[in-house]
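User: Hi! I'm working on a homework problem where we have to compare a predicted structure to a textbook description. Could you give me the structure for the chain below?
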Amino acid sequence: MSNSVVFDLCVIGAGSGGLSVAAGAAQMGASVVLIEKAKMGGDCLNTGCVPSKALLAAGRAAESARRADRFGIKTGKVGANGKKVFAHVEDVIARIAPHDSVERFESLGVTVIQGAARFTAPDTVEAAGESVVARKFVIATGSSPRIPAIDGLDDLNLLTNENIFDLKEIPDHLIVIGGGPIGCEMAQAFRHLGAEVTLLEMAKILPNDDPELVGTVRMRLLEDGVVIHEDAQVVRTSGTAQAPEVVVVDEDGREHLIQGTHLLVAAGRQPNVMGLGLEHAGVNFTPKGIEVDTRLRTSNKRIFAIGDVAGGLQFTHVASHHAGVVIRNVLFKWPSRTKLDHVPWVTYTDPELAQAGLTEAQARTRFGARVKVLTWPFADNDRAQAERETEGLIKVVLSSRGKILGAGICGPHAGDLIQPWVLAMEQGLKIGAMASTIAPYPTFGEISKRAAGGYFTAFLYGPRMRKIVGVLQKCF
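Assistant: Happy to help. Predicted structure tokens:
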């Protein structure tokens, strides 16, 4: 590439959102340059979604072996070989990496620059000694672990999602600060792999999900042997890199000293906005992210921001949705806008916890007593009984007229089972559509049909219907 080249589109950040934009735009005929200062694939491939789910799968396999006697299967003592477990994680990343590689994107016609990007003008970026001028820009730099201001924390050898998968052995005792999805997933995964685990949360674990559904996850974590401290404020840390100590104050004001061998911080994430030279590009931003409108345009209308760096919901699938919005705006001049009313999210614990739309509490705050709630337990699902996976339930929130406002599922395969509910909400379907669907037997998916059918139970089997049937039988 020459010292100064003009492109149709410059994408900064090769995570899931940036890669989607770059690949889509290039294949549609736009000239695209993609700039990435670290690894192709970004956080999701290298330090987030992919390695965490690979580690969870390893932990789940170990726990399944331990619980095999439920089916009359005998196993010996179950243990985990740390080197092989983390080699499995690395192998999963390596198998997916070619799809996100420099070579693949260059084969699509994308110019890839490996280096840090910094705006020097509203239409110019410098990276790796190159000056890039583009008609449009997309900032997709993602987010990084947020490290809370805790006395003594900087003196310890912290683990975050960015380095925990570099371990070669299973920790003896892992202390986890943060009870959100990452904290709960890693706490259970390492516990299943044989580590002692203590989970610390300043409020309640999984605070953005329905408390009734969270209760099932909490119970399972406790049954697994995870020690949970909720409403616990971490006030200071001490010890050494190999023997960290954490002091927490509980809701009654009492101090507790927790000693471990490893310390994982999973206390949220912060958008990567620093070092981009946004002030030179006329882009407004705060520590919470780049300010965008519903079309994902920044204060400089030639520059868009997508994914975690734009603030809001921090999910890979949201970044992918953003990518589609930007492509329509940039390539087709179509004023496409984000639509995030029914975005699903999943915590991949065992059992999984999935949510889309409004929770019961949110719906009651907005609509009051008119809200109707339908539930159905996995214990009443025949496939769940056969699989010995009966923990949890589905919970559907409706308007008084049967409009689906939200759905939450805690149970096996919840992340897959939530998808029909997302489709129903996006298409404006009422509960009758789900109730009338023919579900194959025996499947976990029947739980959605059963819950939906509950909306009509009172009428179908009530006194009014009995009178109607009685009259019809006499008449005919």
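For your comparison, note the following. The longest strand covers residues 130-139. Residues 49-66 form the longest helix (18 residues). Good luck with the assignment!
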